[in-house]
Amino acid sequence: MTGDSAPTPSAPATRAPPVRYARNRAGRTLAWAANGTGPPVLRIGAPMINVAEQWTFPSERPLIDALSARHRLVHFDASGFGLSEPSPEPFQIDTLIDDILTVADAAGIDRFAFLSESGASLAAVRLAARHPDRITKMALVGGYVDGRARRGPATSPDPIRGLIEEGWTTGGGGLALAYQLSYFPEGPMDMLKAMVEREQTTASEAQMLRLRDVVNTDSIADILPRVQCPTLIVQGRSNAVHPLSEAQKLAAGIPKAELVVLDTANHVPLPGNAVWADYLDILLDFLAP
Prior knowledge:
It comes from Thalassococcus arenae. The chain is of the alpha/beta class.
């Protein structure tokens, strides 16, 4: 990045960006898109709405407009999800890291800021540690250090996994909606209903279960001290899926990381939440060059 001041915000785009494709090391195509101009930001994480539909989606468009008014925002569908080529291989964190670098190279961004949400923090921290030359700064929203199965003594069966297993194939069904409510208990409800209907078409039940098993058993505790870039951690105070203690572990382990706690039970703030405006201000201030 160059320059000492943030670029002048531009008006929101009126046309959806084209979906582009790149090929990862395994030879499979990845769908990606870019919005806006300015210092690059690459985003990974929830919700899993394909890149062609994110731009029009009520839970996504306000964030896309806010970021792309000041940045070139790059986002993509990971291998086997959304518009990317189906993959016979099960989900792996290292494959996601390769996908991220593939898309960054295709977009022509050598160095970029990173916006990661939820379990994507597991890939984001690894990437920042392995490739400090690529990451200028990193925002982790709803992130965590240890997956559910790694948190203290033996835990009960994962209720969220059960909701996926029982309800994912029922279009717009109550169990799939309950899965979303566990992450976003404050809603807005109309967004959650639309979100789950789209996610059910973006990822299969088998993909979701494999993803859940990987993130439940993973840990990045030993990697945190190797992160060199400025890091912002944002967490909801009453987040029940990944509690505040996990964000505190992130902040304690990453050198000079900043933790911001928002008064919400939502895993990631959504438009319509009371903390939404504050969240946008915090995020844009941090990502500004």
